[in-house]
């Protein structure tokens, strides 16, 4: 069964494909975003400030305007069900 994580602005990610969720503030993660190729980066911020980054198992990088702590809380509540 596919379960999805709401990452804001009607955007969802399959929880089985999430590898890690990090916050955007560190320099190494900003470098990763800068170096990401066009087809690897998915911007789901709707023009808002990027607060978290989701790395997927299929090497996609997803930017979200929802904070890391909120996303992890949502993820844990979905996994418990």
TrEMBL record:
- Top-rank lineage group of the source organism: Bacteria
Concerning InterPro entries, the annotation shows:
RemA-like (IPR007169)
Which PANTHER family would you find in this protein's record?
REGULATORY PROTEIN SSL2874-RELATED, REGULATORY PROTEIN TM_1690-RELATED
Q: What is this protein called?
A: DUF370 domain-containing protein
Tell me the organism. Answer: Clostridium pasteurianum BC1
